[in-house]
Structure formats: structure tokens, C-alpha cells
Write a structure and sequence with these properties.
CATH topology: Nonspecific Lipid-transfer Protein, Chain A
Shape: globular
Structural class: alpha+beta
Radius of gyration: 16 Å
Oligomer: single chain
Helix content: 25-40%
Length: 158
Amino acid sequence: MRKLLITLIIIVVLLILFLSVIILLFLGIIGSGTESDSSSPVIVTKENLPSFLENQEIVKSMPDKGRIIINFDEQNGSKLSYFIDGKVVTQVSNYDANRIDAEISLPSSYIPELGYGLCSAIQKAQKNGELIISTKLSKSDFAWKYMKLLKYKNCLDG
């Protein structure tokens, strides 16, 4: 009985740690925990966002069967959606919500800010209450599937 209790406590602690990973999936849009915001800024636009994201270490660390949708909400009420399927990022006009593991939403005004540092842009959106993340998997399934992304949690510690 005691062994079971200890195992359950360990699982709960791990799940809590891994839940922070979901926020990182914005994670599809945050760089490594060692990202330096002092480097030269990169111009990020709606058009080059897929290739920009594909070159980020966090996307390169995605599981091959990981599926994340990132929605950038426009001021006119429309949204720009980018589908991360493994390590490939494509802009999509619609998607099957049943085929994704997580959905991340933030205003499109953060797209240019990504070029100044993924972590700082995510931290700013989170601080301003403009970052929304929801998972479609159970907590344990999500934690297991995306455990390699835990190393990027520093992007949310701002």
C-alpha cells in the first residue's frame, strides 16, 4: 500500500511538471531555455512564421506524432492558424480539432515580437493574460508524449 502511495505521489508530481510543458508549446513558439534575447532580432511575419518556427529548437524537439495548433487572433475577429505536425509547420484555414493534442491562442500582434525572442514574447503574452492553452489529451498521455519539451519550461518563468 505504501509503495502504491509513493508511486502515485511521484506520478502526480511528474504530471504537474509536464503540464508546464503544455504552456511551452506555445510551445511550438518558444525557443530553448537558453535562448538569448540579446541576439539580433529576426523579422517574423505571417508569411515566414512556418519556416521561422521549424527552425526553432522546441519544434525540432517535438515528437514525430505531436500535433499542435497555434491560433493568432486578428483584431477583425478572424484568426491565423498554424498546424505543427511533428516538426513541420503549415498555415491552415481549418483543422479537425479531434486530431490535435493541444491548442494555443494569442493575439496576432505577438507575431513580430517573436523575432525579438520567443521566450520574451510568450512571457509577455502570459503576463498580459493573452496566452490561452488547452490540451485535448489526458494529462498523463500529454505528459508522456511531450516529455522532451520539459527542458523549455524556463520560457514561462519570467
